[in-house]
Structures are given as C-alpha cells and as structure tokens.
C-alpha cells in the first residue's frame, strides 16, 4: 500500500471513529432515522454541487438502481440502526462493534462470490462474535435489555456493511466513484425522508447539535465516502474495509476526550478479541524481523 493510500486510510478511520461521538450528541435529539436522513441528505446535496462544479459525470441513467441499493444498504439502514443505538450505547462500543464488518464481508463473500469459508476464516468469525459478547457482557456499563438491543442494532448495521461491500464489488465495479458516493447518499434520502421527517423535533436544536450534524454530513459522509470509494478503486475492497481495524482506536480516543467515557481492561480485551478474529478472516500475518 502506497503512503498516500495509508494516509487516506488513517484519515478515514479518524473521521469515522469520530462519527460515533457526534451521533451520541445528535441521535438523542433527532432520533435514529432523523439523524440518518439529515446526514445523508445534506451530504448528497453537497456532493451534487461538487460534481456540478467540476463537471464530473455521475451516470445517473446507467447506475441509479445500483446507487439506490448501495445507498439503502450502506447509508439509510446502517445509519438509522447506528443512530438508534447511539442514543444509549457508548461511542467506544459502537466503534468497536463496527469492526465486525470484515467478518460479515467474509461470510457474504463465501455466499455470493463462491470463495471458500476456510476453517481459519470460520474461526475468525466465531472469535469476532465472542469478542462482541465479551465487550457487551463485561464492559463498563450496566447490561440491560436496552443496551443489548442497541448493541444488536450495531451488529445488524455491520452485517449490512459487509453485504454491500460484496454487492459493490460484484455489481457496481464500473460506476464512477463520485457518482457512487453521491448516488448512495442522495437517492436513499428520498424514501427515508418519508419516515424520518415526521419524527424530527418541532423546536430548533441547540447550536452544538447543529454543528455536530453538519460535521456528520460534511466530514463523516461526503468527504468520507469520497475517501472510501477512492480506496476501493486504488487498493481493492478487502484492504479498504480494513479501515474498520482503526475505527475503534479513534472511537475510543474521541469518546474519552469529548464524552468522558471510560476504557476498562475488559473493553480492551473485547476489542483485541474482535481484532484477532478479523486478522484470521483477512489472513493477516505478524511481520517477522529479518536478519540484517
């Protein structure tokens, strides 16, 4: 991986890790679907303006159906689920649970692309889910039905991410990156708006919530999607989705810095267990020192 690609990967992880902190601010006010809709609608409009400014073809006529499918599975559904979860779940939990995406990606790759789910990968999947159970059961917050439901929502969101990464590779490989980023944000905002708009608060939110919402839309959606689809084009989907390795690190750091969340030993152990599962799924190896 080139240094420029590695830098994009780190920046993307920092942005998406911070999104969980921002959602902890926005979701209790706008709700899960409200947060998702405002986020993707603003981001999609901004990318449309950007595409018009640079005269970039988005190829709506050819790819709109695929854009809509990717948008529903990569934006509307997971953003709504995570937005709902962030009403009660610590930001660090959400960031760590997001790291399950490559595990679901491996499962759907086996089902849809015919790649073998080897014993090593299967062990990684089991280990990943064990890490989630450890994290939720022994973490620093009280285990309640609401917490379990929120954690389950995050897991469903990562399943959607895992599926759509394979769908994109199989069916949308020829679409322009900017068109895919724009369409997958703006198109699902249309049907989601019918559900989300009636749930929005009647009063104008505080300045803090407005700023957090704009950061979610501009940085964590519009800019992040451009970086993500650029990585998919340059380094491939498997390496691009490895950004989820770093998201929990930044999610924990931002949660501690801005929300006063606590990182305990069991949180770290749960996260490391998930990382170990991902390493098995992706076949990562620990580099060995070579003699001088």
Would you kindly provide a written description of the structure presented here, covering whatever features stand out?
- By secondary structure, the protein is mainly alpha-helical.
- It has one domain.
- The chain is 77% helix and 0% strand.
- Helix 1 runs antiparallel to helix 10 and helix 8 packs antiparallel against helix 10 (207-235).
- The two termini are 24 Å apart.
- Residues 287-292 have low confidence and may be disordered.
Q: Could you estimate the helical fraction of the residues in percent?
A: over 70%
Task: Report the mean per-residue pLDDT as an integer.
Answer: 82
The largest sheet, given as strand count, sense and whether it forms a barrel, is: none
Query: How large, in whole angstroms, is the Cα Rg?
Result: 18 Å
pLDDT below 50 for ≥5 consecutive residues: which ranges? 287-292
H-E string:
HHHHHHHHHHHHH
Query: What's the total count of β strands?
Result: 0
**SSE class:** mainly alpha
The shape, in one word, is: globular
End-to-end separation: 24 Å
Number of helices: 13
What's the structural domain tally? 1
Strand content: under 5%
Record the SSE blueprint.
Blueprint: H1 3-30, H2 32-53, H3 60-85, H4 91-97, H5 101-113, H6 119-138, H7 145-171, H8 177-186, H9 189-196, H10 207-235, H11 237-240, H12 247-259, H13 265-282
Helix pairs in contact: 1-2, 1-4, 1-10, 1-12, 2-3, 2-8, 2-9, 2-10, 3-7, 3-8, 4-12, 5-6, 5-7, 6-13, 8-10
């Amino acid at each position: 991986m080139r240094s420029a690609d590695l830098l994009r990967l780190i920046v993307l992880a920092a942005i998406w890790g911070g999104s969980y902190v921002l959602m902890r601010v926005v979701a209790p006010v706008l709700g899960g679907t409200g947060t998702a809709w405002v986020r993707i609608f603003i981001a999609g409009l901004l990318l449309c303006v950007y595409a018009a400014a640079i005269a970039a073809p988005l190829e709506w006529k050819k790819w709109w159906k695929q854009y809509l499918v990717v948008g529903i599975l990569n934006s509307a559904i997971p953003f709504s689920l995570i937005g709902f979860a962030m009403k009660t779940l610590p930001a660090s939990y959400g960031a760590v649970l997001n790291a399950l995406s490559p595990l679901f990606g491996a499962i759907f790759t086996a089902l849809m692309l015919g790649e073998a789910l080897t014993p090593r990968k299967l062990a990684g999947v089991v280990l990943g889910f064990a890490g989630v159970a450890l994290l939720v059961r022994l973490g620093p917050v009280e285990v309640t039905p609401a917490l379990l439901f929120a954690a389950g929502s995050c897991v469903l969101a990562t399943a959607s991410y895992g599926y759509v990464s394979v769908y994109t590779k199989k069916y949308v490989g020829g679409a322009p990156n900017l068109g895919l980023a724009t369409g997958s944000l703006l198109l699902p905002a249309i049907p989601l708006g019918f559900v989300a708009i009636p749930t929005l608060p009647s009063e104008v939110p505080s300045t803090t919530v407005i700023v957090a919402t704009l950061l979610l839309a501009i940085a964590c959606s519009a800019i992040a999607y451009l970086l993500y689809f650029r990585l998919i084009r340059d380094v491939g989907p498997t390496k691009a989705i490895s950004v989820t390795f770093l998201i929990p690190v930044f999610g924990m750091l931002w949660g501690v810095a801005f929300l006063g969340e606590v990182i305990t030993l069991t949180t770290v152990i749960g996260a490391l267990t998930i990382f170990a599962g991902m390493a098995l799924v992706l076949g990562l190896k620990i580099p060995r020192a070579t003699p001088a």
